[in-house]
Structures are given as C-alpha cells and as structure tokens.
Design goal:
Belongs to the cytochrome P450 family. The chain has about 400 residues and is an alpha+beta fold. It has a single domain, classed as Cytochrome p450, CATH 1.10.630.10. Helices cover about 45% and strands about 10% of the residues. It contains 14 helices and 13 strands. A hairpin with a 6-residue loop joins strand 11 and strand 12. Helix 4 packs antiparallel against helix 6, helix 7 packs across helix 8 and helix 8 packs across helix 10. It starts with 6 loop residues before the first strand and ends in a 9-residue tail after the last strand.
Length: about 400
C-alpha cells in the first residue's frame, strides 16, 4: 500500500534563530512537497527544493491574488481583501508595477546611495559616541530602514515612530490576536489616507505624490491600490531590511576572521552580501502563499485547484544540488543564484534598495568601528518571535575603532 504523506505544523522551530529548522533538510531529501497546517488552521503544501520553489514563483496558475478572498488560506491575516501589489496577479500586477518600477531601478537607487551613506555615518557616529558597547538595533538597524523608506515615500519625519508599532503588529504570525492585527491595519490605513490627502493639497518630490498624481490625472490606479502600496512599502521596506542587517552582522561576527578580512578589503562586500542574503534566516523563509487555479505539477505532487502552496525560500537557499556546502557561510561564493528576493514577475521590487542599504551599513561599520564583535554571548540575546521577520530585540557590539576614528576601545 502507498505510504500516507505526513502532516506537519508550520512554521517549524529552529534550535537557534540563525539556523534553518532541521525539517527543511529532511523534507528536501524525503518529501519535498509536503502537507502542513498553519497556526490559523489553514492547510498548505510546503515546497522545499530549489527548482520546485522557482517553479512555484514562476507558474501563473498559482495565484497570489486568490489569497485575498475571505477564508482563503494565508499565513498573514493582513492579506485579506488587500489591493497590494504583493498579492496581485497579472495584468493588474503588471500595471501597478510599471507605475512604480522607475523609483526602484538600479540607477535610481544608486542616486540614493550618498544619502543612505550620510544617514549610516551619522547613526554609527552616535553609536560610537555612546559606546562601547553600542546597540546596533537601536542606533542603526531600526532607524536607518525607517528613515530611508519614509524619505522615498514622503512620510514626514515626525510621523515615523507612529506607524512602527502598527507594522510590527501587522506582521504577526502568533504574537498578536487577529483583532489586534485588524486594528493596526485600520490605523495605518487611516494615517495613509490622511497623508494622501495632504499630498494632493501639497505635492512634493516623493513617490507617494507621484502615485497620487497618477490616480488623479491618469486614473492609472485606484485609491485603494494607492493606500495598499503605501502600506506594503512601509511594512516591507522597514522590517525586512532591519532584520537582514541584524542577521548579516550576527553571521559575520560568528566567523572569527570574517570581519577582519572585509575590513581589510571592502571591495569584497558585494559578493559577501549575496552570500549573507542566501544564508540569512531573517524573513521566516517563506514566500507568499499561492493558490492553484488549475491543476499544477510541483515535483511529484499535483496541486489541485483551490489548494494552497507555500514556497520555503530559506530551504531552497540551502539546497545542496545548487549550492556546494550550503550550510557553510562562504563569503567568497561567486556563483550564488539565491532566491532571497524571490523569482519571476514577483521578484522583490525593493531588492536593489535592500542590497544598497545592507552594503552601506556594513561598509560604514567596517570603516568606523574597525574590527567589531558581539558584546554578549549569543545565547544571551533576546529575540522578537512570532512575527514574519525575526531579529534580536537588541544587538550590543564592541569594537576596536580604526586609527581614522581615534583610540581603540
């Protein structure tokens, strides 16, 4: 008789937040497309092998938009009823992405680099003044992404702290109740509606104003889509990058000579950053749920219409058929086709911005702190859990300040 497939509970729990759950390797080997139940009771197919994950990302018969229906399987409650680009299918996705893509081209993001570098230098400078030890989360990993995405969108500086708590609640798996999540969504949307009205009266040189003008002049997008895009950018542009900065630094300091090597040769940073992104566990390791609109073959399983699929990015990035010694952090890994930013038409719009922020932060830390290390034992760190992006609540560093900055600390 054929063996009945096992049923798993997802998300899995890891022995350490920097390591992938052991279940990923076991599933890749024995059951790469497996049944699982989410905390909200929804059932999904987990996809863990690299090629299968890319198939899920690229196959148009696996719909993101279908998860917005009430009662549809989803991992985050905020997807319900959303008009976000994050949960759109073509042609609506294509139309909205075309409207905003120019703001996220490599050329446009490179124009932001000097300002990002200025901010990073100021923030690391304040950490230097107050430490060591200095809390990277408080001084850099949290304020830098907030400031950058808010300046890009056009959110006034005085309001940036207002939405921080809302967005943290919105990204909860299990840390907050559905009622708390709905309340946070409502408050953020109310704030954005007021901000859009302000931009209409007082246009500025920012992305939100451009979208308001597209709505008013060209009827290129609806008010609902405009608000959803602003919400998506604030949530993803802040939390994802903040967590990636924290994980990158933690993974670097776990290797005795990594910081010294990069400090001596900062030109190695772009290659190192791709490996840090592949290796990272910051984002919970899953792409958005998709729902089959037709029968779709993934691996050895045929996904039936109406069934949900969850691609496991962190598992795909540890697939030994693609990456040699995948559980080794190799900062010299030249061939690195990771899927940390997804694949296909939904490849992350802010990928280049995230890369630049990570590169600038690490370059600034290496230049101004010299060789730095964790100021506490790794097991002493407290972590934010139950949310889409896991990171330490604080990340205290000690350092040896370079000769350019003054005496050693």
């Amino acid at each position: 008789m054929p063996r009945e497939p096992a049923e798993f509970t997802f998300p899995f729990h890891s022995s350490h937040p920097l390591d992938p759950p052991a279940e990923y390797a076991a599933l890749r080997a024995d059951e790469p497309v497996a049944r699982a139940t989410l905390p909200n009771g929804h059932r999904v197919w987990l996809v863990t092998r690299y090629e299968d994950v890319r198939t899920v990302f690229a196959d148009g018969r696996l719909s993101r938009q279908a998860i917005t229906a009430p009662g549809a399987p989803k991992i985050l409650p905020i997807a319900t009823g959303s008009k976000s680009i994050f949960v759109m299918d073509p042609p609506e996705h294509t139309r909205l992405r075309r409207l905003v893509a120019n703001a996220f081209t490599t050329r446009q993001i490179e124009r932001l680099r000097p300002r990002i570098a200025e901010l990073a230098d100021q923030m690391v400078g304040r950490m230097l003044e107050q430490g060591p030890p200095g809390d990277l989360i408080e001084h850099v990993a949290e304020p830098l992404p907030i400031t950058v995405i808010c300046q890009l969108l056009g959110v006034p500086e005085r309001d940036r702290a207002v939405f921080r708590d809302w967005t943290e609640v919105m990204l909860s798996f299990t840390a907050h109740t559905p009622e708390q999540i709905r309340s946070a969504v409502g408050q953020l949307r109310g704030y954005l509606a007021e901000l859009v009205a302000h931009k209409q009266r007082n246009p500025a040189d920012d992305l939100l104003t451009s979208l308001v003008e597209a709505r008013d002049e060209d009827d290129a997008l609806s008010t609902e889509e405009l608000l959803a895009f602003g919400q998506t950018m604030l949530v993803a542009g802040y939390h994802a990058t903040s967590a990636e900065i924290a994980h990158a630094v933690l993974n670097l300091v776990s290797m005795p000579d990594a910081v010294a090597r990069l400090a001596a040769d900062p030109a190695r940073l772009p290659v190192a950053i791709e490996e840090l992104l592949r290796y990272s566990q910051a984002g919970g390791g899953v792409g958005p749920v998709r729902i089959a609109t037709e029968p779709v073959r993934v691996g050895d399983v045929t996904i039936q219409p109406g069934e949900a699929v969850l691609p496991c990015i962190n598992s795909a990035n540890r697939d030994d058929t693609v990456f040699a010694q995948p559980d080794r952090l190799d900062l010299d890994r030249e061939r690195n086709p990771h899927v940390a930013f997804g694949h296909g038409v939904h490849h992350c719009l802010g990928a280049q911005l995230g890369r630049v922020e990570l590169q600038v932060v690490l370059e600034t830390l290496l230049r101004r702190l010299g060789e730095f290390s964790l100021a506490v034992e790794p097991q002493e760190l407290a972590w934010r859990t139950g949310t889409a992006f896991a990171r330490p609540l604080s990340l205290p560093l000690r350092w040896r300040v370079s000769t350019k900055e003054g005496a050693a600390c």
